[in-house]
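Quick one:
INPUT:
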């Protein structure tokens, strides 16, 4: 995205980051949550090279469930091969054939208009892919996607929704970590415009896993911007695509549900 406001931790700071090596690789597209306090030369889809990935993950307990938002996905336009692990078919996403700018092989899901996730299905030296979704990692990735979906649904609303039930369902602290900074956007009557497109590219980091806790890195390419009701750009937003690295701590609460505890900047996710 081209945003430059200061969202902190769960509020996902949007500082333009270099996209040379990503946690995941996707041909090229846009990415998630808007905000941040820096700026740099904008990257175009054509100029984004394939990225390399961090080491593959290790197995994790898959006995937990993931918090679900109230959103339901539209019918899928594609199917998951029998030997491939995909997202749960009853989640708030739908499998689609492609997303703008995504060229690397994998599964593409639409979470809402303007928001996609790309997941690799096989390791590839050509594309620099060394992580693929597993049954063990699926509830963790789905918890991360649920949290991102809640954020984007809330911030794309007119006005921004800070009271929806999704916050408590997907985040350990509900909206608390976001409230102060999003209240500022709310007071300015701003909303997040996803028409530029956002593609998430998450993966579970195996060596950062512990009992009941996992870490997700995401190098997302972000084309979203804050806008005012009259259509003007808001809060120092800049049109264009900006790669942003994020780290999300996903924890298993006492009910056995995975939720997002913290989301913060992680430059290493895009190296």
């Amino acid at each position: 995205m081209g945003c430059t406001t200061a969202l902190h931790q769960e509020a996902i700071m949007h500082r333009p980051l270099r996209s040379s090596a990503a946690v995941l690789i996707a041909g090229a597209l846009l990415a998630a949550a808007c905000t941040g306090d820096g700026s740099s030369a904008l990257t175009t889809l054509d100029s984004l090279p394939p990225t390399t990935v961090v080491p593959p993950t290790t197995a994790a307990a898959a006995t937990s469930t993931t918090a679900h938002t109230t959103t339901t996905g539209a019918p899928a336009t594609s199917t998951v091969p029998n030997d491939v692990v995909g997202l749960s078919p009853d989640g708030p996403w739908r499998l689609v054939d492609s997303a703008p700018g995504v060229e690397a092989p994998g599964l593409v899901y639409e979470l809402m208009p303007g928001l996609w996730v790309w997941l690799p299905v096989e390791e590839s030296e050509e594309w620099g892919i060394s992580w693929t979704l597993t049954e063990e990692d699926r509830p963790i990735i789905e918890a991360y996607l649920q949290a991102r979906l809640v954020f984007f649904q809330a911030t794309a609303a007119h006005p921004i929704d800070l009271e929806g039930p999704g916050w408590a369902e997907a985040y350990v602290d509900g909206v608390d970590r976001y409230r102060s900074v999003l209240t500022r956007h709310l007071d300015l009557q701003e909303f997040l415009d996803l028409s530029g497109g956002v593609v998430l590219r998450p993966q579970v980091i195996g060596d950062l896993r512990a009992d009941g806790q996992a870490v997700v890195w995401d190098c997302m390419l972000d084309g979203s911007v804050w806008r005012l009701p009259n259509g003007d750009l808001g809060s120092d937003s800049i049109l264009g695509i900006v790669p942003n690295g994020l780290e999300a701590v996903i924890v298993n609460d006492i009910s056995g549900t995975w939720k997002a505890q913290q989301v913060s900047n992680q430059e290493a996710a895009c190296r």
